[in-house]
Amino acid sequence: MKVGIPACPRWACATSVPPMQREAELYPYVKAHFQRLGLTVKAEIGAADLVAMGGPDPVIVELKLRFSLALFHQAVARLAVSPVVWLAVLCPEGRDAARALRDNTALCRRLGLGLMTVRARDGLVQVRCEPGAALPRRSPKARKRLEAEFTRRQGDPNQGGATRHGLVTGYRQDALRVAAFLAEYGASSGAAAARDTGVPVATRLLADNHYGWFTRVARGVYDLTPEGRRGLADWDGALPD
Questions:
Q1: Which pLDDT band holds residue 236 (cuts at 50, 70, 90)?
Q2: Are residues 28 and 125 in the same domain?
Q3: What is the side-by-side order of every strand in the sheet holding 214-218?
Q4: How many structural domains are present in the chain?
Q5: Are 130 and 105 in contact (CB under 8 A)?
Q6: Full residue range of the structural domain in which residue 210 is found
Q7: 59-64 and 84-90 as β-strands: parallel, antiparallel, unpaired?
Q8: Do the beta carbons of residue 158 and residue 167 sit within 8 Å?
Q9: 3-state percent helix, strand, coil for the chain, nearest multiple of 5
Q10: For residue 169, what are the CA distances in angstroms to 101, 146, 149, 231?
Q11: 75 contacts 111 by C-beta, under 8 angstroms
């Protein structure tokens, strides 16, 4: 839903400019952008960097050289004044620029904020998303994966806030059960491991051998590798008693 002003085209200034070092250097290009939409623009009105009038609602713009949490705090505070709030940020450059734009654009959409970037070398203004309340998009697949992992996980072997490295997942617990079975009974089929351990995907798990713990010794028959025995020792305690 578009709020306050019509859809914004991508405007560019033809004059080449030196790299921008101050927020004030973004102002002429952002001002020209809104003037072309027929709005009257003034700087530093109250706490806002830029205010444009002439549409159903005041247009409020916060100018910054880079993304920051403080910038989003400021913009969200401006939503108490008008539903049409924009961030105008110097377009990021470098290796992580694309990711920074993608992630911050997604955050703006979730917050109902507009986002435009100003290119340093020529003042090109590009609209990344427009202001307007947006409901969070649900992902049924992501929810299904979350619920499946919760159900699969036995006990609570991890500590909240830990890094992803070394976490005990439901898959790892299944692999540990199968490894423990092979350590006790020796080479066996996946079907036998599934019956004894209660891991229905034991055959697939043995064949995939994600951790390098298993080796096929005959058709459909697997045994434990030295890595598998070390894994049992390293992950002792990962399974509930």
A1: confident
A2: yes
A3: 188-189, 221-224, 214-218
A4: 2
A5: no
A6: 168-236
A7: parallel
A8: yes
A9: 40, 20, 45
A10: 32, 12, 8, 14
A11: yes
Identify whether 193 is part of a domain: yes
- Check which CATH number belongs to the domain holding 100 and give it: 3.40.1350
Q: Which residues contact 79 (CB under 8 A, 6 or more apart)?
A: 85, 112, 113
Is residue 47, in this structure, part of any structural domain at all? yes
Tokens of 213: 């713990």
- Is the pLDDT at 18 greater than 60, yes or no? no
CATH number, position 216 = 1.10.10.10
Helices (H) and strands (E) in the chain, counts: 8, 9
Predicted TM-score (pTM) of the model is 0.57
Contacts of residues 198-206 at CB distance under 8 Å and 24 or more positions apart, as own/partner, are 199/174, 201/174, 202/174, 202/178, 205/171, 205/174, 205/175, 205/178, 206/178
Instruction: Give the CA distances from residue 136 to residues 54, 107, 109, 133, 142, in Å, rounded to whole numbers and listed in that order.
Output: 30, 10, 9, 10, 14
Predicted confidence (pLDDT) per residue in 128-171, tens digit:
998 986 655 677 888 788 778 878 888 877 765 455 557 888 99
pLDDT tens-digit map of 34-54: 999 998 888 888 888 889 988
Rounded Cα distance between 68 and 236, Å, is: 43
Among 3-12, 67-76, 177-186, 220-229, the range scoring the smallest mean pLDDT is 3-12
% of the chain surpassing 90 pLDDT = 44
pLDDT at 10 (0 to 100): 39
Together in a domain, 121 and 45: yes
Tokens matching residue 123? 């003042």
